[in-house]
Amino acid sequence: MVLIYLETSEGQLKKSSAEAAAYGAEVAKKMGDKAEAVFIGSDGAGIAEAGTYGVQKVHQITNPELGTFNIQAFAAAFTEVANKIGANTFVFAKSSNADSLVARLAISLKADVATNVVDLPETSSGFKVKRSLFTGKAYAYAELKSANKIVVIRKNAFTAEPTGSAAPIENVTVSVPANALLVKTKEVNKATGEVLLPEAEIVVSAGRGLKGPENWGMIEELAKVLGAATACSKPVSDMDWRPHHEHVGQTGIKVSPNLYIAVGISGAIQHLAGVNSSRCIVVINKDAEAPFFKSADYGIVGDAFDVIPKLTEAFKKVL
Ligand SMILES: Cc1cc2nc3c(=O)[nH]c(=O)nc-3n(C[C@H](O)[C@H](O)[C@H](O)COP(=O)(O)OP(=O)(O)OC[C@H]3O[C@@H](n4cnc5c(N)ncnc54)[C@H](O)[C@@H]3O)c2cc1C
Fold it and tell me: Which among 19, 158, 192, 311 is least surrounded, fewest beta carbons within 10 Å?
């Protein structure tokens, strides 16, 4: 049995969880098995949607003490459900919560783990997965040999097309050990913005080339027209021109949207490390020699203060 871990945002199934659901359902099909999902938390209004991607049932863990994320308690709850239903293949979409959960589950479920997986497994002999390495510069093929297997898929590597109908939900309470509840969440400060950066299909990102925080209005306007999230380079958030949750790169958020528009960003290796698995990269920079152009699918050599307003007006006419 394949068991998929679901996450939501504002009650809605996250796009990355929809991808995990579709991936898990395909894996189950390949193995002639069933695909079910588990959701832990108090924010699960939209989880039945997982059924439209091929999930047959969602186990919703309803313990009140599991309303917000807690690594130990969530790992214990997930393990209990996994053992109860006899699941042996576990699918996660990459997220900060999933990363920490998977590390614990590898121990509690005695499972082999493959992260950054970008394709369906080869199951004709064994269970081999394709992994993206070195920030998308290379691939490795890993064989998971243990009976229990955990696959963490990279965002945007697998397309989720809704085809089926909503999944039935089974409410479950689990027996979380008291020592798994020692850490308590006192407050949750959520990133703000109309489109959340880690989930965004389009990202408009800007760097030090914009000169100062007062010039971000044109970036926000372009993002709004495109239905995009905004992001920035590290120095921009270090100088408090933009909030830290917008910082992308090696030391910030890693994004892989369909379209990444980089404005006034030089393209340092540490920045590229967080964005170079984007499907299409557009670079706007006034220096034709800016390193970012080497990684760009499309480039515009020009002054951002001239190009961005024109681009926004052009998009307004067609969108
Ligand atoms: C350990 C370590 C980790 C790091 N992690 C990260 C990270 O996670 N993310 C990250 O972003 N950086 C990171 N950095 C910093 C990184 O090395 C670069 O310094 C940083 O990315 C540069 O930011 P920038 O491109 O905005 O600024 P700059 O390098 O100053 O580039 C500004 C660009 O804007 C262009 N420009 C100027 N004016 C205009 C204009 N009017 N119109 C159009 N273009 C214009 C310039 O030609 C230039 O290319 C890290 C560095 C280290 C050492």
Answer: 192
